[in-house]
Specification:
There is one protein chain. By secondary structure, the chain is of the alpha/beta class. It has 2 domains: 178 residues, Rossmann fold (3-Layer(aba) Sandwich), CATH 3.40.50.2000; 178 residues, Glycogen Phosphorylase B (Rossmann fold), CATH 3.40.50.2000. Helices cover 46% and strands 16% of the residues. The chain has 15 helices and 13 strands. A 7-stranded parallel sheet has the order 3-2-1-4-5-6-7, with helices on both faces. It starts with a strand and ends with a helix. The relative contact order is 0.12.
Length: 364
Amino acid sequence: MNIIFSGGGTGGHIYPALTLIDTVKKKLPDTKILYVGTEKGLESDIVPKTGINFSAMKLEGGFERHFTMENIKRAADAILSIRRAGKIIDEFKPNVVVGTGGYVCGPILLAASLKKIPTLIQEQNAVAGITNKILSKFVTKIAVGSKLALKNFPASKTIYTGNPIRAEVLTANREDGLREFNFTAEKPVVLISGGSRGARSINTAMIDVLKHAENFDAQFLHVTGKGEFESVKQSLGDNLPPNVKVVPYLYNMPQAMAMASLAIFRAGATGLAELTARGIPAILIPYPYAAENHQEFNAMELVKVGAARMILNKDLTTEILSKHLAELLKDPAELKKMSAASLTLGRPQAADEISDLILNLVKQ
């Protein structure tokens, strides 16, 4: 069996695809995989390192959300891209094509649909992206990560599955995490991350919190993002309290999540899927420039069931963040209640469900 996966631009589109590839390969080890991405996107760096065959499409970018002359140029580029995508499909001869988001999915999924090859898109966010909204008219099946996204797509072909998450997120245990980061089991651990690139607003608000971390009966692991690390380190100085660790990037995030008692996160769909699968209470600061403001809608799902608190980016200050931290860390019963609420949204079986959908498309 041959399967093409396509997704690009951000880790939120790439890592769900890689998780689905792993799940499919466990079920059918002889399956041949081709990943189609862009030349300049993160996928061109991440995917080849996994050993998965990678084919790059030359694309300039997605459509802007209002009429511009640039959109006319990109429409012409998209038409040429469909022709290039068709050549990739003719050469690889996939039995099914899967898209996990980003404008690179457009040409490859549309070309596959025109050739009558079964197709599936996986939409992670509560508000669907423009590419997936267009593709929904052509593809065979749609798997959504949020119930709120169901209204964006035709009911006859759409199913709520949740978002696929890495198996190691579920299997990592707290003891391993504490040992990995040299933290104690006697105090809660606060995990702070603004995503793979970091979040300047979160980093800035956290600086004074970390300088006075001895005021909190907790331990802190702050992931700044590689581009932000030096400036954060310089602002913090050399005399960090012993209960604080600051790192530029985490390659072992599953272990960090396994020991986390509370998370301070952006509201990307993949991160939230991992938090809810583990039942980690959260303070969420949605990225304000996400398309269609989808991160705020993502966060609201958790807030409504009591799994998280939300601070809008425009309202984020050290004082407000410290207030929420102090309230939650002093109230273990509330954290326990939030954890239980978070688990109600968790979909640890999502990757299995979506991979079954993919394989069933081939059988049909």
